[in-house]
Predict the 3D structure of the following.
Amino acid sequence: MRASGVDYDIRKAIPYTGYENYEFDVPIAKEGDVFARYEVRVQEMRESLKIIQQGLDRLEEGPVIADDGKYIPPKRSKIGTSMEALIHHFKYWTEGISIPKGSVYSVVESPRGELGVYLESDGGTKPYRIHWRTPSFSNLQILSWISDDHYVADLVAIIGSIDIVLGDTDR
């Protein structure tokens, strides 16, 4: 969509996990052809590097994992010396974390487009229902329209430029 002039990025429209704290541009092209999709993809990679550099600059010295024993396994050094750590480690890996009862749908910006997940929980440690909405199926829907009046040989570049994963399309 961005290669056809649509200025939309989930990280800007519905910021999540701190994206609102980073400076980056949303690459746009107006032509809507294979080369425009290529140019947008290359510029997206450059913008990703800007985000990574900002993240590295903000990273403080010290541990980067939470220190909450309810949600992370104990350190290996404690497992051999602490019975409580061993029990927690065993329970953590065999039972898992209890997920609150209810359902949620959330989306993130992936390199191919909007990636969504629907998760439903009955209050146990495993999801009751989960469904992934990958962008490949949606991206494939446009193929007949954008390949109209083109040669069969052009399909290789066109399919490559919409960047589908065929395993995602048969869900």
